[in-house]
Amino acid sequence: MFIEIRFHGRGGQGAVTAANLLVASALIEGKYGQAFPFFGAERRGAPVLAFARISDKPIRIHSEIKEPDVVVVFDPSLIEIVDVIKGLKPNGKIIINSPEPVKLDDSYETYYVDATRIALKYGLVLAGWPLINTAMLGAIIGVLRVISIESVVKAIKSNWSGKLAELNANAAIDAYNSVKKYNQV
Q1: In terms of Cα–Cα distance, which of 154, 157, 155, 152 is closest to 175?
Q2: Assuming Cys at both sites, which of 31, 34, 135, 170 could form a disulfide with 175, CB separation 3.0 to 4.6 Å?
C-alpha cells in the first residue's frame, strides 16, 4: 500500500491539520507517513494545499505530490478556480465537502460528505468558520479503509483534550459513517 493524497482547502479550514492527523493515525497502526503543507502568501480564506503519503513500507520520496491517488476538496467553490483533479491518477478518488453530489469527471470515483453540517452540529467553529478538518479526515478513512477509525480517534485525542477532543472525534466518526459515493449516470 502506498497512497498519495492532495488536500485543497482554504486558509483556516484545517487542511494541514487533517493531513497531519491522517499521518498520525497511520503511525498509530505501525504504518509510515508524511504530511506537509504548500505555503505561499496564504491568509484565512485563501486557497491552500496540503499533502500526505501513507504506506506500509518506509517512504523514501520527499517531494510535492503532483500525481495523487486521492484528491480531497474542503471547499467546493475551489473547483471553479483551481484544477483540483490535475494530475489525479487513473482510477483516482475525489472526496468533496458538499451536501449534494458534485460531478467532476466520470473517470474518477467521486465521494461527498457534508463536513460543514457535521462541524456545525458539533459546534466546531472558530471566528465564524466551521472547522471541517476532522470531519473530512473521517470521510477519507471511510473511503480508503486503510486505517481504522479507532486510530483516527486516538490521533485526535492525542492532538486535543477534553470536550474539544470528544467533539472532533465525534465529527470524524459521523463523517466516516455518512460519506457517500456519487453514482455517475
Answers
A1: 152
A2: 135
Domains annotated for the chain, with CATH where assigned, are 2-181 (3.40.920.10)
Closest CA to 142 of 100, 178, 101: 178
Q: Distance between CA 88 and CA 69 in Å, rounded?
A: 6
Placement of cell 479507532 in the chain: 150
CA atoms within 13 A on the CB side of 122: 25
pLDDT, residue 43, reads: 64
Whole-structure pTM value:
0.93
Residue 11 grid coordinates: 486558509
What averages of pLDDT result for each successive group of 10 residues across the chain (185 residues)? 94 89 97 85 72 96 92 93 93 95 86 97 91 97 97 96 96 97 70
DSSP secondary structure string for all residues of 60-111: ---S--SS-SEEEES-GGGGGTS-TTTTPPTT-EEEEE-SS-----TTSEEE
| DSSP letter string, 128-173 | TEE--HHHHHHHHHHHH-SS-HHHHHHHHHHHS-HHHHHHHHHHHH
